[in-house]
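Z., the sequence and structure:
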Amino acid sequence: MNYSLLIIDDEESIRDSLTMALGRHYEVASCASGKEALEILPALAPDMVLLDIGLPDMSGLEVLDHVRRLSPHAAVIMITAFEDLDTVISAMKRGAFDYLLKPLRMDALKLCLERAKSSIRLGKEIRVLQDKTLREQIPFFVAESEALTDVVQTVAKVAVSPDTPVLVEGDTGTGKELIASAIHHRSPNFRGPLITVNCAAIPAELLESELFGYAPGAFSGAGKKGKTGLVEEAAGGTLFLDEIGELPGSAQAKLLRFLQEGEFYALGSTAKRTVRTRIVAATNRNLEEMVKSGTFRQDLFFRLAVVRIRVPSLARRKEDILPLARLFLHQYSEKFGKKITGLTEDARTALLGHVWTGNVRELRNIMERAALMTCGPELDADDLGLAPQCEQAVKNQGVLTPEGVDLPNLLQDMERGYYAQALRLAEGNESQAARLLDVSRDTFRYRRGKLGL
């Protein structure tokens, strides 16, 4: 491959002689000042830079900092007329590859450039391996049903953009966080951070400062150093705002400004901050109804819902139930060191006949518990511990008012059974029981009270 080289030196004779000597082996460009270098760097993206420390308009060390930011993988070789040890050490700490003394010896320069090329090749190979590893860990979906296949295709299209907002809608437990993770890992931002925030789990009065940070002394009890918000921490990546319907009004206004302008102000600060962070939001609530009732901003809804993805419930993707069950069984068999070969016919029938009010999360939790508790080579219906269900309810799964079935009471009884069973398995410990059901401790306590347990 041809390597590109940028020479930054204010002495025209040096630029000309180096261009002539190296032009046969490298794609050489040159400039006489730091300002000129910074103007051409983004488009040039050189592999290597020869940088004179003594430039007329700005310090070579200052230019080095800009090069490291604009072309982070470039090998920068500093050129100095004086062997100032402190300056050399400072340059190396700031990311310089090497340094050479003037007058330049061509043999030493060529050797240095060869070493830089080897370093660049190795760095590229490492990045390719890192990218391959990351890509192999992209979240995947069990999508044999047409309903979820459509979702997966939408995710692939949306992920091409690095910053288009996405609103993921769906019932509890359908896998909205997995959708957000897949969008992130398939996007150009996949090397950046993916930060998840459950808006319902943070007190409303603290949520704004969590998202946007605060300045020192912004309020009573604020730290002396202030705090960086999650929007800024997710810069270059994705911020997933789960339960977006719980966002308080003041934070809604700030989030709207960020989505429109890419800028925000930390709490108590007058300094404008600008970052590029993709926002993926999720909700199991009807935001359009919340807009009508005045509890959610219409302009924020429109900005979040540039792309809307509706994740189907298990009732709409029955073809995925058994493949998902087998996947979870395999995962938990390995986790618990067991050799469980599969599901009996009775177990398959029970899984297909169950009303999955908790969707994929409920299925995963049941398979984890069954894999942990079973002693046989196959999971049977008894291992699953599914509550018996009325035949008419099974036939009408997904219908809101099946004839002869009091569905609301049936679902509440089922939920009460799950919560009671989780408490028994956790020996009364609410935190452990909440983890078994994959809900927050506050949610568990609230639902436990509602269910009269």
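Confidence is low (pLDDT under 50) at residues 389-405. The radius of gyration is 29 Å.

Let me know what you think.
H.
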